[in-house]
Design goal:
CATH superfamily: Rhodopsin 7-helix transmembrane proteins
Mean pLDDT: 82
Shape: flat
Number of domains: 1
GO cellular component, one term: plasma membrane
Protein name: G-protein coupled receptors family 1 profile domain-containing protein
Distance between the termini: 80 Å
Helix content: over 70%
Membrane topology: Multi-pass membrane protein
GO molecular function: G protein-coupled receptor activity
Keywords: Cell membrane, G-protein coupled receptor, Membrane, Receptor, Transducer, Transmembrane, Transmembrane helix
């Protein structure tokens, strides 16, 4: 699983790790992408599987990625449909942020069908690389969670300012900015020459560190507000809603950072030195697997922590799907019984005619 062969050329003498806020999650590659690097990258038109199927562990990894990709896409996709089909949820800012992260998680789930099942290595030397387009889906969530934390802080701590200035269109603009910024930086870094790409990569590392520190501080701040400030307010539906939203965002961010931090630490170690762990491909990258698990855990926490979202997902997605399946089976069963009844009737008529 871990490649034991060390690099013959120092990282510092060639290129730096490709790390930006746009793709901070699984970037275990060692050098910055550039036009020259792209020409040197090997791309096989016949893509092999991610494992050799020579051991039980290979089968487990392959099956795990199939199950995970399916579950993540279905669960996150259910959250997307539940929010889009429920007007009451679309009008609340916190559910707009949930919608944005769930769209990213749905795409992450689908991306695992490629990253997890085939021999893909992002970075340099790359194999069947997507130039970080697929790994960057979760990078969108890094910024979205940061905006969501500030949103909850202003909603609870400064309600008058929040109600006046933080409109639904402003929140939608923040979500769009997360996507535009992420893939704009990624595009620029992929087309820049190596020297400029190294500078942009260093700026991305610094920005990413600042974002992580802010997220940790905001998580602590929101926890204090949820525990002390709201506890002094009189019981009311509004207080319960605020407490629910704060508790949910705190749990989600803690889970996100817990699963993502090992990958971030390994990236930093490899960026600053020749140390760190190296893996055969994205499918066997333990840190990437942990980070991608956020695509499933985030949606599960949303449904668990929000009764309104849970009801919406059940009524608009799963209940309708089950009813449609039951109606389809009932219709097929009725048609089958009708055909059998008609066959029996024709047979009895034939027998009567023969006797006559």
């Amino acid at each position: 699983m871990i490649c034991g062969k060390s690099e013959s050329v120092s990282l510092r003498s060639v290129h730096r790790a490709h790390i930006t806020p746009s793709c901070p999650l699984f970037v275990e590659g060692e050098r910055v992408s550039s036009p020259s690097v792209k020409r040197m990258s090997s791309f096989n038109y016949t893509i092999s599987f991610s494992v050799d199927f020579t051991s039980l562990g290979d089968f487990f990894i392959f099956i795990y990625h199939i199950v995970f990709a399916t579950c993540a896409a279905l669960l996150a996709g259910s959250v997307v449909l539940g929010i889009l089909c429920t007007r009451a949820l679309r009008q609340q800012n916190r559910f707009i942020f949930m919608l944005n992260t769930s769209i990213s998680d749905t795409l992450t789930g689908f991306s695992v069908y490629y990253l997890g099942l085939f021999d893909v290595q992002e970075g340099y030397p790359s194999r069947n690389s997507t130039f970080y387009i697929l790994p960057s889906f979760l990078g969108v969530n890094v910024m979205t969670f940061l905006f969501a934390q500030f949103d909850r802080y202003l909603a609870v701590g400064h309600p008058f300012f929040y109600n006046r200035f933080i409109t639904r269109w402003f929140v939608i603009a923040c979500c769009v900015f997360c996507w535009v910024y992420t893939y704009s930086i990624l595009t620029i870094q992929n087309v820049l020459p190596v020297a400029q790409a190294v500078k942009l990569s260093a700026f991305g590392v610094m920005t990413l560190q600042i974002i992580v520190v802010i997220k940790v501080l905001m998580t602590i701040k929101l926890y204090i507000i949820a525990k002390h400030q709201l506890g002094r307010e009189a019981p009311s539906p509004e207080r319960d809603s605020k407490k629910e939203s704060l508790r949910l965002i705190v749990f989600v961010v803690i889970c996100f950072l817990s699963l993502w931090c090992p990958s971030f630490v390994n990236i930093m170690v490899r960026y600053l030195s020749n140390g760190g762990l190296r893996f055969r491909n994205e499918a066997t990258n333990v840190f990437a697997i942990m980070a991608r698990f956020n695509a499933l855990s985030t949606s599960a926490l949303y449904i668990w922590g929000s009764p309104a979202l849970r009801t919406a997902v059940w009524n608009t997605v799963w209940k309708r799907s089950i009813q449609h399946e039951c109606e389809t089976r009932e219709r097929k069963s009725t048609e089958h019984l009708t055909e059998l009844k008609g066959h029996v009737t024709d047979k009895s008529r034939t027998q009567d005619w023969t006797k006559t």
